[in-house]
Here is the input.
Amino acid sequence: MTIISIRHMASGEKGTIVKVRAHGEMNRRLRDMGLVSGTEIFIQGRAPLNDPVNIKVRGNNLTLRNNEADFIEVEVER
Amino acid sequence: MKKKITIALAGNPNAGKTSLFNQLTGARAHVGNYPGVTVQKKEGLLQHDGWEIHVVDLPGTYSLTAYSLEELVARNFILEERPDVVVDVVDATNLDRNLYLALQFMEIGVPLVIASNMMDMAESMGLKIDLEKLKTLLEVEVVPTVARQGKGLDRLLDSVVRVAEENREWRPKNIRYGPDLDIKIREISSLLMESRFPTDKYPARWLAVKCLEGDQEVLKLVGGDEAVGRKINAAVEDLTRHLRVTLDDEPEGIIADQRYGFIASVTKQAVTTEGDFRRTISDKIDLVLLNRLLGPIILLAVLYAIYHLIFWVSGAPVAWFEAFFKCLGGAVNSIMPEGFLRSLVVSGLIDGVGGVIGFVPLIAFMFFAIAVLEDSGYLARIAFIMDRILRTFGLHGNSVLALMIGGGIAGGCAVPGIMAARTLRDPKERLATILVTPLMNCGAKLPVYAVLIAAFFARHEGRMLFLLTLISWGLALLAARILRWTVLRGEHSPFVMELPPYRLPTFKGLLIHSWERVWEYIKKAGTIILAISVVIWVLMTFPALPEDLAQGFQNQRRQAEQVFLAGPGGKILPHTGALNEFNEYYQLFQTKKVKRTGEDFQRDYYALARAVWALAQGVPLDPELEVDSAPAQGYLYYRRRIQEIGVEEAGLALRRSFGGRLGLLLEKITRPLGFDWRTNIALVGGFAAKEVVISTLGTAYSLSATEEEASKSLAEKLASQPDWNPLVAFTLILFVMVYSPCAATLVVIVREAGWGWGVFAMFYTTISAYLLCLAAAQVGKALGLGL
Here is the structure.
């Protein structure tokens, strides 16, 4: 089990959020959308230029820019 | 006696709140603004079971923090206006996140009814929700609905009424936040209650939690009492320090985690899913539509298809409208006596407004297409694909909606486009979007392009319009980039966005959605443009030609008469009276309204008329008639002279009018662009409304046109003007595309962003247009394209 940021996850890979290292508005925004510790996520895919990323969270799709996704540490099975 | 209550509709964006609102209130919604802010407020009234229910649609929110205007507005409405019931529209396929908001309502304590919406989608996703369990665990009424199909509404309203009847006090729910926080919360609550804070309005515990969350508005509120404020701040700092050391986290984070924890424990008991992360149908579709390679290609194909479809479908209605207005113009022309009033009605009103209304079908179809994109969920995909590119220019994926409504595909209106920019959270990105949306090819500019293209680029219509679409996007992106480097420097805002599942839009929903925007456009046309057309007409008609000059032209006409009467024609029509009679007769003859009669008098006229007509058409004369070609020639010559005099007179009158003088004055700076005084008047009119550009050109060329020419379209007239050529036409198109937003748009910009930006928008666009067109004209001339 390793901990990586979403940017380094592959399409189709899943993992569990360990920590959200954002502050202020970014923090709140991510949390509002349900990206909190303990949440399971699944990488659905990425946009043509690799940015943003399409993530499945609690049965729904969220899109995040890579530099926003960098705030999220995910535990994956590798 | 009717019982009245007020309910507030709340919920996440995309949860179906708007659908529910529309279903409940139908077309009887009243749209306004929340006091003092640019946040839209929709209200409606409905009757249920003897109750009169006033429904207020709160802005869609994910939370009730102080970070965004919408959330503050929603929160304040509940705390200040104290609605009887809040209906939280929850997306059943996304229960956890949607309940996050519901929980916050529960912490405030307002009577709540949860509408578990989109139950049909939940079922198709394999979700089984035990609503009774949910109700028990949350201690809140939960009603299943499928708002789009209007299901569950009665049950929902029954629940609402039941809850309202209980009329109980607000009972805030106390969520446990863990030992560290709970102690501090109790501490701060007591402080507040001791200090005689209005804790009946603002529940003490709720305030305490907000303080720990670092909620700026609440902190400001409690800071009102200095002593208490200081103690609370101390408590918050103390806790923050403690948590950072022990848990490496902030109070805000822990509070969010705990809320989700509570929700998860509830949903774990009430919801069962089939399998983990099942790839839904939406996901499967996205594998194709969001594919690296296929995605953008399909997007371009879709936009191209919409583009062509719109033009193809609206072609017939637009033609009908045009024909109708032409007919109307002709009818009024023949019914009304000659004079200022007739001129006003025909040249001013009918020509002016007709051109605009004629395009309503196109605009309507365009808005409908956009509504399809929005409601189906594809628009979110467009934002997803385009975000990276738009970000390079300082915009945001969501900017794409505003730009498309503004006319990004072809046809639209900047007014609803700019209002759509409200979805952009970051003020700088929002401003940049607002400032470049007017560069899109809106429905007002299309008639201008259409006429100029028809006149000078006749065989390349489709290609030209496509090129113009590309140019407008290019200029908009470039402008946004420059603006974001200069006057609007700043960071990007978070992009975190939902990708809603694909849905088949309902026809009713699409109609409501697009009708709102079409109506805005028609209102604008009916009012501003009508007014402007009248003003322009006045400017171009007054001051009228002075007596002596008018007399001069009358003399010329009399002279032409004399020439005719002295010639061979004078034998058939011996005096002015007969000549005038014949003029009327020929008019009727041309429109085939006369018949042969037995009277000699008529026969002479008939013979001559036939001869004139034959000569004019180049058809051989009928040898049975006793008129040879000489009198007919003489008449034709006379008519031509009269026309020439008419053109000269009208042209001179136009030049001497206020409008003409202004146009001539501006010629000094517009000469290098290839624009003459008539174009200048049209462009000045365009400051008020872009549609006016073409109608003014039409009026300018029709007021100074001969009878025969009047039946030609403006395109044909322009094509035959000596000082017009493809380069001039293209330069004019560019100028119209870029220069100042129309009055209606400026009004909206001022409303959304303030006077400063409104003025800025007007100047930066006009100056840019001038420089751009100057360059284009010079380059074109240098390349020899001018001729």
In short: The interface with chain B takes residues 14, 20, 23, 25-34, 36-40, 42, 44-52, 54, 56-65, 68 of chain A (CB under 8 Å). The CA atoms of residues 45 and 68 of chain A lie 16 Å apart. The two ends of chain A are 5 Å apart (CA to CA). Strands of chain A lie at 2-5, 14-20, 40-46, 53-57, 60-64, 72-76.
